[in-house]
Amino acid sequence: MTKTFLSYNNIFSNLGFDSETVVENISRGNSGLEKFNDPSLLPEPFCASIISSEKVENEFNKIGTASKYTKLEQMMILSLKRVVDASTVSLDEKVGLIISTTKGNIDVLEKESNFPESRAYLSELGKTIQNYFGFKNEAIVLSNACVSGVLAISAAKRFISEGKYDHVFITSGDLVSKFILSGFNSFQALSAEPCKPYDKNRVGINLGEVAASILVTSSTENLPKEAVEIYGDATCNDANHISGPSRTGEGLFRSVKSALKEANLDASQIDYISAHGTATPFNDEMEAIAFSRLEMEDVPLNSLKGYFGHTLGASGLLETIVGMCFMEKNILFSSKGFSDLGVSKGINIIKDNTSKKMQIFLKTASGFGGCNTAVILRKANN
Amino acid sequence: MSEIFHIKSYCNIKNQTVSVNGELLFSDNAEDFPAFIKKVYNFFKTDYSKFFKMDNLSKLAFLAADILLKNEGLNEEENNIALVFSNKASSLDTDRKHQAAIENEEEYFPSPAVFVYTLPNICLGEISIKHRLYSENSFFIFDRFNAEHIQLYANSLLRNKKAEKVLCGWVDFDENSYDAFLYLVEKEGKIEHKTEEITRLYNTL
């Protein structure tokens, strides 16, 4: 069986334009969330993590002509370029490209957009990224709601294990658009204050925008210090409801079980859980039930939504990269926004930054359509 | 790597027709998709009230899957059938409806019942609920049907015992044009699970 590793990576967010700066900001307790009162995005005030378009353009103009690309394309290219450059992998026939996104360039549907509606097709986004870098293979776009980022890691591993590719670059991203804000607001799911995952006073989510990219590789050579091996992964559906999580956490429970089985580990061997934690009442409760059923109540757990908001199709990959960096530093970072447990099961939410020697962590995500994913990652360098 | 899988059955819905395993089972001259798909629903005696709340893409995917799976003698409790679907237009048909509801300040009225369908994988959720599939789901977007990647992905799921069977294919809905091709991959079957065969079945009708 081919081994697969998560290698060079980048986070492009308003907490910094590289993983190291972003993680440094998290370690200081800094959040990218801000309050906005911008009727052109939402008729009422909201709280989100947004990267200024001007900053993105200034950064992009150092490497190309920003006006030819949408904001999301600029973010994805800037993020992926740092990974491609750092990896020194040459983009030949054995190198794949996966794009993970829920809505891609959906903002081009707006009347005032400078781009044609055809840019909203996700395969066009794939082509734009593919052509910028000169990938030999057609971009594979994965759009599976809020689990897309974690599922992209599974997909890369699967294409590598089938012998199609030796290396796969993943880039992921979504924007905080009028489209997304209005939709989540129609569900009454948004919190106007910074979100509080798992807290008894949580009222809902904040949205966020980010591009995150990573190299998935079968090669053990030239791995960065935070590299991890993919030990097990799975995706399971709740088979319950299209917009609400299962009350028993069925799909999440099954995904973690399946990933543990593949990794040949039991729950007690997991050092840390980077959970989904959107701060909606139902999601966080569902996760607590699933982790309790898995006998993982004592495993230190956090949600990173208090730093980035919910970054949709990028969230799973973003949070995996942050988890890799945490593990390399052997520090458990606090679950921002949490103070008093507000779920029915006694799960171990990280309140303060704490040192802990770590080897293995679990990343989970859940999303609309009843989908859930889990991936288990182990330090590649001991 | 030597294990070989097969295509057990397949279903095509396009050009106002429905066929299963290459045999034409239903055709109608309804030009309009909602009218056509309702006739398909009735013809195959589908009895599932949630169908009428679905968007066009989910209706198309749901019926193509239902027509195939109802003959498979599935378990009532649960089934380990993975879903690996793909298309070109993602959920753009419904995305445009949501966008129209938020475009003007005077008529700003986003609806959660519409917004929830602005994700292509919602149709996988609908199929999973109906057929009790607590299994792997993935939704890929390609410019056109990419048999090779879907075949590799299905093989990986079967070889690694992540699924007993995989329902794969293409379900696209865009501007009243529709195209569904789903096929069930498992150990037994008459057609070998390889890219050339998949492409042949997709292009048959």
TrEMBL record, chain A:
GO molecular function, one term: 3-oxoacyl-[acyl-carrier-protein] synthase activity
GO biological process: fatty acid biosynthetic process
Domain of life: Bacteria
CC annotations in GO: cytosol
Keyword check for Transcription regulation: no
Keywords annotated in UniProt: Transferase
Domain Ketosynthase family 3 (KS3): 1-379
InterPro entries per the UniProt record, alphabetical: Beta-ketoacyl_synthase, Ketoacyl_synth_C, Ketoacyl_synth_N, PKS_Beta-ketoAc_synthase_dom, Thiolase-like
Family: Belongs to the thiolase-like superfamily. Beta-ketoacyl-ACP synthases family.
Name of the featured protein: Beta-ketoacyl synthase
Organism name: Aequorivita antarctica
From TrEMBL, chain B:
Domain of life: Bacteria
Protein name: 3-oxoacyl-ACP synthase
Species the sequence originates in: Aequorivita antarctica
